[in-house]
Amino acid sequence: MSRTSAPRRPAHVTSGPFAPPAPARTLTAVSADGARLHVEVHGPEGAPAVVLAHGWTCSTAFWAAQIRALAEDHRVVVYDQRGHGRSAASEVCSADALADDLEAVLAATLAPGEKAVLAGHSMGGMTLMAAARRPGLREHAAAVLLCSTGSSQLVAESLVVPLRPGRLRTRLTAAVLGSKAPLGPVTPVGKKVLRYATMGPGAAPDRVEACARIVHGCARGPRYAWSRVLAELEIDALVRELRVPTAVVAGTADRLTPPVHARRIAAALPVCVGLTELTGVGHMTPVEAPEVVTERIRELVRTYVAVEEDVA
């Protein structure tokens, strides 16, 4: 049995459009290895379902803008990845574990055969790709949205370190992203560093603040453990197994997963229904361009979930 540590209370802003709303209900999903995942459900029961998976160092709070907009007429499911937010850390960290966790959340929140739009940002998108062959995803996914994500070569192709591609840049990038140093409290300097690494140069201060609160709230242990998994990620073959309609969104100023990743994924998807590149936007697309991401989710629900319901 894996050892777990108690989760810390997640950090986030408490007012404004990026403050997470109170859920209609909360529950715990239990993954294949016994890991316990904090899950929230927002919006009316019986409404079309949307499941959102956040990225590395984030939490359910990352999707606050999407939850606020969609929960009026959708049932929105969000969960904390293991070691993030209110989900306890585990010694088991792998792409397979991410897929296990997603299947557990889908089983705990959706009725048998119920279809939903699944959206993932960064590591959340990697979660959806890692689960491409899983029965749970194939049972429940009507369509997928992949935001600011990649399937391999994450360290080698990162632009966080401003050097030419090569061994030196890769080595330095691995050291930066895999640092065990504590992030500490949110400060003006910390926000400048976070904006440079993860957001576009024009990101508004309230959006930088929202992201900084969340990222700085991630515990050091899980942050490091998952950085090692992402550094070695190789799931290109699984992209070709994601056989549902899939849209891709990327920011042109993304240094963590530059647009080359989105283009490669879009080219490999069996049913790609659009690649959207957002000029000047960085890695944190759901926070930097919330209206665009929300509307893309709505379009997928209208096009694919409604069709499924009509057929049923």
From TrEMBL:
Stretches assigned to the AB hydrolase-1 domain: 50-294
Gene3D superfamilies: alpha/beta hydrolase (3.40.50.1820)
InterPro entries, sorted: AB_hydrolase_1 (IPR000073), AB_hydrolase_fold (IPR029058), AB_hydrolase_sf (IPR050266), Epox_hydrolase-like (IPR000639)
UniProt-recorded Gene Ontology molecular function terms: hydrolase activity
Keywords noted in UniProt: Hydrolase
Region Disordered, annotated ranges: 1-24
Keyword Hydrolase (UniProt): yes
A Pfam family matched in the record: Abhydrolase_6
Name of the protein: Alpha/beta hydrolase
